[in-house]
Amino acid sequence: MSQLRALAAVLRGAGVGGSQWLPWCGGGGPARRWVEPRRGCSSAATHGSSYVEQMYLAWLEDHKSVHESWDTFFHNIQASSPSGEAGERRPSALLQGRALSHSADTTRKVVEDHLAVHSLIRAYQIRGHHVAQLDPLGILEADLDSFVPSDLITTIDKLVRIGGRFYGLSASDLDRSFQLPPTTFIGGGDNPLPLKEIVRRLEISYCGHIGVEFMFINNVDQCQWIRQKIETPGIMQFSNAEKRTLLARLIRSTRFEDFLARKWSSEKRFGLEGCEVLIPALKTMIDTSSAAGIDNVIMGMPHRGRLNVLANVIRKDLDQIFCQFDSKLEAADEGSGDVKYHLGLYHERINRETDKNITLSLMANPSHLEAVDPVVQGKAKAEQFYRGDTQGKKVMCISIHGDAAFAGQGVVYETFHLSELPSYTTHGTIHVVVNNQIGFTTDPRVARSSPYPTDVARVVNAPIFHVNADDPEAVMYVCRLAAEWRSTFNKDVVVDLVCYRRFGHNEMDEPMFTQPLMYKQIRRQQRVLRKYSDRLIAEGVVTLQEFEEEVAKYDKICEEAYKSSKDEKISQIRHWLDSPWPDFFTAEGEPRSMNCVPTGLNEEVLQHIGQAASSVPLEDFKVHPGVSRILRGRAELVKSRQMDWALGEYMAFGSLLKDGVHVRLSGQDVERGTFSHRHHVLHDQGVDKRMCVPMNHLWANQAPYTVCNSSLSEYGVLGFELGFAMASPNALILWEAQFGDFHNTAQCIIDQFISPGQAKWVRHNGIVLLLPHGMEGMGPEHSSARPERFLQMSKDDPDHFPEFNGDFEVQQLYDCNWIVVNCSNPANYCHVLRRQILLPFRKPLIIFTPKSLLRHPDARSSFDELADGTKFKRVIPDEGLATQNPDQVKRVIFCTGKVYYELARERRQHKLERDIAIIRLEQISPFPFDLVRAEVEKYTNAELVWCQEEHKNMGYYDYVRPRLLTVVADRKPVWYVGRDPAAAPATGSKFTHLNELKRFMDTAFDLRAFHGNDA
Predict the structure, then answer these.
(1) What are the tens digits of pLDDT across the range 786-823?
(2) Quick one: average pLDDT of 664-680?
């Protein structure tokens, strides 16, 4: 420390800022081997000269007595001093006043000038991208600012005007040689360089067609890796064979768009014109990754360029793509299908550059642009998980973005913040931004507040490579670099392809309305294929004839595919699956059976799971006293052959794990549970970070159980889990909202992927949403999971009583788009979770889970309700006194969820068990028409009531009422009991809440309430 303080004092005396000298010291620290002046020095020299002078004296006596960086500088001193004086190595010669003064001045000047040069180098590394030539049109600055940072000396003129003031350098220093610091590779070695050559090489590295942002990364090795790849002279070289491959890929990309434009000039296709280099860019990334061992690449992208990527990267058959343009195309399969530029694909093929097998998936995606980002991450994570790829060395993902969406959509930020979380990381994603420099019609200068659209990536220390998309070789180099970065460091990286959009937002749009200057320039802009082919022809890499033959060859392929598309029946949507399950479905995509086996369990399994759920499997593990009480309570329940909600869930998960089914539960605070009921992860109270997951200690050869708290995100995390569920049908993937109300932040995933996914993309998915729901006086943001939204999107017909030849339950589930349930007891909750896996197909499952019922003494189930042969009850009929004389029952109350217990309590208090039957709908959608009809027919003389705790314009009423009327064939009315319509889902006043509850309870049990009134 004394040496550091001494050197700092010298540098301050030389006018150098506090931290500027650090890079110059080379990381090894200043003069570590020099502590005090040598003993041979006089006291006058020791006390009258600076530390640098004393170190210089020591160095003259022994070069190895100082750090090697000082050794280099002192050699420079000798080289710049007058002959004779510099050659004098004896300390006595420098103790004379004039010689000593000259030595100090020379030393100070050398130090200051070298520090200035090193600061200049650092300025280019930090801010050089601001002056890089990135815009192919030469109109806008990619960073939205034409200002050139004052610390960048980009011209000799600027060195004369500004360099002297900022760095103390002048034009006379241009030919002086300076030793380079170890934090740069522009020298290609250890040799000093003249200042003008240093500036020239910095401009080539940082101010050409590549601009790099990386100096914010807080890892020295990573920064050094990038510096070496960017700064080393001549490193961006391509062989003639590589250039020919690049040209061939550029031909395919360009001519594909030209062919579509000729054949379907009036069709929207969201072509790639203006960024045709994207195709060779993606293929370069895949080639490089394949060479590093990757054999599965999962991709997501918006609509622009999707057809080209399908054709020339995924290698979808061209005739099947062209078939999608047929205006008379009829759906040959189930589902409504989607527009061609939303479809996905899964394809296994040989990578011709590496001769290795590779699987490519492009995920289907709606127009909600960045919504696919977390879905891609989740599917990649699942593929890695099931393959045991713990480092991402076999499976990776590539996400392609538009510039406006990348900057504007919050899910991008949410997804980036999953990238380093243990249960969510995919060990590095390559992000490619197709930077059109415009949104739909919006100028970027009014569309974002950051300099670049990619600045969001800085939050995870991802390097950002900006590159001019009209320089194909620069793009290829950057893409290769990005793939190598991902392979080396397993971290995210961003490639910003600064390009333009030759047409408007789509081919039918007129961009001149709002962007006249840009589109005047675009119309004059020579296309990148023409520029690059002319360049290679001039270089002698290819001949004009070879180029024209390659163009003609691909044009012929397109024409032949076009003819084939008209002759073959190839329009089936099943050809566009992005996540096939070949072992689960038949070759035709049908379930292998249409039966659902019982979901009960034998006593031995129940007891084994119950005991594990109420104990700690590790020795010397100290749990919290509160958790100990919970475990003791569970043990008492197991002893009495009963279960609460947490135990019912334990039974479901544990039994599936026994059968080899992976279970993954994700969401905010799911390990403990928002309401402190679950405790699936135990924390040792005496040892930091020592944790135990008892569920992973149930059986010797069980499947793994993953329970993981997520980031405070709904949109991103639900999308992630949806993607995870796509990878395999033999896994139970659950996402739990902290409160069901919060799922609205993830509404895009629900609306665009989960509800219509099978209809649009024939994509089965068994994801489970657990949404805590219940009106308990907790206010409008902690009460309602908005069941009305899910029910409104359920596709069953309210006016049609379905008829099936086989199992009514299974057939109805097969026809629905998702399943919506509100279980009222733990056994039924366990059954529905097990049914989710035992069904011969997969449907999303929405479960409205309780809050107060988690500990309600009446919300218990016996082990008998989970015994062998039992199954999920879609409807739980009344089992009390009302069933003894059903024809004398005056009122049948249908309800669902928690309100049943309030109704049952009120009925007991009013002593109306014989007069009123209460029937629970456990499965709300698809509506259990068959079972409801049986209950209605049982109570022939009773009036029918639907009772809910939600407000009348919310909850289940609008969904249930027309279906009940279909069941009774309009022979009798269906009355409503519940809260009045409201704008907010619940009151924030506990007093008002209780009054509302009392009011509708009184109505439910007033047998005169409905007479003379309309339904």
Answers:
(1) 999 999 999 999 999 998 887 899 999 999 999 999 99
(2) 95
Tell me, what's the pLDDT at 96? 45
> Can you give the pLDDT at residue 107?
75
Strands 875-876 vs 916-921: parallel, antiparallel or unpaired? antiparallel
Extract the runs of DSSP E, i.e. beta strands, from 658-799.
662-667, 682-683, 691-692, 705-709, 731-736, 768-772
Q: Name the DSSP class of 354.
A: T
Higher-scoring residue by pLDDT: 149, 9: 149
Q: Which residues contact 49 (CB under 8 A, 6 or more apart)?
A: 57, 100, 104
How far is residue 209's CA from residue 614's CA, in Å, rounded to a whole number? 63
Closest CA to 729 of 829, 591, 831, 598: 591
Write out pLDDT tens, residues 58-69: 777 787 777 676
Dihedral (CA of 761, 763, 769, 775) sign: positive
Mention every residue, 6+ apart, whose C-beta is less than 8 A from residue 691: 681, 682, 683, 684
Q: Considering only residues 52 and 214, tell me which one the structure prediction assigns the higher pLDDT.
A: 214
Residue ranges of E strands in 266-330:
296-300
User: By the 8 A CB rule, do 390 and 425 touch?
Assistant: no
- Report whether pLDDT(876) > 50: yes
pLDDT band at 888 (very low <50, low <70, confident <90, very high): very high
Q: How many CB atoms lie within 10 A of CB 95?
A: 16
Partners of residue 434 on adjacent β-strands: 402, 497
Q: How far is CA 646 from the centre of its chain?
A: 30
Tell me the residue ranges of DSSP E strands in 285-426.
296-300, 345-351, 356-362, 395-402
Distance CA 710, CA 987 (A): 30
CB 681 within 8 A of CB 690: no
Residue 978: in which H helix or E strand, if any?
A: strand 974-979
Mean pLDDT of 571-586: 74
CA distances from 606 to 856, 859, 863 (A): 21, 18, 7
User: Which amino acid, 125?
Assistant: Q
Residues forming beta bridges with residue 923, ordered by sequence position: 821
- Give the confidence band of 333 by pLDDT, cuts at 50, 70, 90: very low
Q: CA-CA distances (angstroms) from residue 843 to 72, 118, 950?
A: 71, 62, 26
Looking up tokens 């299974």 gives: 810
For residue 817, what pLDDT is reported?
A: 95
Residue 190 reports pLDDT greater than 80: no
Residues 636, 321: Cα–Cα separation, whole Å? 63
**Token duo for residue 473:** 């070789």
Using left for φ > 0, alpha for ψ between -120 and 50, and beta otherwise, residue 762 falls in left
Q: Is the peptide bond before 926 cis (omega within 30 degrees of 0)?
A: yes
Q: How far is CA 149 from CA 124, 127, 131, 141, 434, in A?
A: 10, 7, 8, 13, 26
Domains along the sequence of the chain with CATH: 1-135+146-205 (no CATH), 240-576 (3.40.50.970), 603-773+822-866 (3.40.50.12470), 879-1004 (3.40.50.11610)
In single-letter form, the type of residue at position 600 comes to G
Query: Which residues 6+ apart lie within 8 Å of 1012 measured at CB?
Result: none
Q: Which 8-state DSSP code applies to residue 771?
A: E
What was the pLDDT predicted at 336? Answer: 66
Six-digit token string for 776: 């308990």
What local confidence, expressed as pLDDT, does residue 4 receive? 35
